[in-house]
Amino acid sequence: MDLRNIQLFLAVYDAGNITVAAERIGMNQPAVSKAVQRMENELGVPLFEREARGVTPTLFADLLADAARDIDSNLRATYRRIDAIRDAELGEIVIGAGGTWQEVLLPRAVANLYTQRPKCRIRIVPGTPEQLVAQMLKGDLDLVLAPIDIPDAFAGKVNIEPLLWNRVTVIARADHALMNRQDLTIEDLAAADWVLPPGTVIRERFEKGFRERGIKAPAPAIECVDNSCLFQIVEATDLLSYVAELRIHERRLSAVTRVPDNPLDIERVSGLITRRSSYMPPLAKELISEVRRLSKPYSKG
């Protein structure tokens, strides 16, 4: 089975419909149908059950899909690495980065690398840890900088190096009434008004913190994606927020600070995630070295 057929098979498998798959890969439906039939003849097993509204993968197709995805992702990663080696003077790196990394250390690491290699090309891709690791395993990213508590489904496929020990915490303006409370409870926090980012990993942890204590998480009075906007709102109001503490330190904010002794504090470890047994481009190695150097003040030894 050649590489073209592998990609064609994955298109049909993912679409569940030969016509839709044909449109996605720029072929006509009869050609795709014949190609699938040839694959089935070659393997001696049915890959799909034909139905009125599409196709349903058989157990054989499920087994083939796992192997086909590995081949496809390795091939895509290899193409990118060949380009990087062929154009070694320029170099290219694609980095998956969580929000805290984008604000705290990655900008300095990238700036330092660019100063040393001004002809290089660097692309930073945002996303949740799960999204970024999945993209890396597909061969679209060289490395990921994100929280390392990733799903078990990725175990055995990646290497993990802890680099940042960070606290996710409640913040408020420096003269907020809660700053002097010695007996702050989860009920106090539930009764407060909040400004929060919508649909983020930290938002999920915020809601989980209340849920684990048997209390419904308060709905935010304001939802705000941009952190600069969020911090300004906290500084100017009685609203609380829930953020990675390193973001406050990095911005050197004096009017906004952590609410002490609050029950929602959690430690979160973030770091470097790479593909296991994978070639690492020279430019990526240089960036990793710089990230490690800058991370030392935030590490545990």
List strands and helices in order, with pairings.
Elements: H1 3-15, H2 18-25, H3 29-43, E1 48-51, E2 54-57, H4 59-86, E3 92-97, H5 99-104, H6 106-116, E4 121-126, H7 129-137, E5 143-147, E6 158-173, H8 186-191, E7 195-196, H9 201-211, E8 222-223, H10 227-236, E9 241-244, H11 245-251, E10 256-258, E11 266-275, H12 282-295
Parallel strand pairs: 3-4, 3-5, 7-8
Antiparallel strand pairs: 1-2, 5-11, 6-9, 6-10, 6-11
Write a compact overview of the structure shown.
By secondary structure, the chain is α/β, with parallel strands linked by helices. It folds into three domains: 3-78, Orthogonal Bundle (Arc Repressor Mutant, subunit A), CATH 1.10.10.10; 79-165 and 269-298, D-Maltodextrin-Binding Protein, domain 2; 166-267, D-Maltodextrin-Binding Protein, domain 2 (3-Layer(aba) Sandwich), CATH 3.40.190. It has twelve helices and eleven strands.
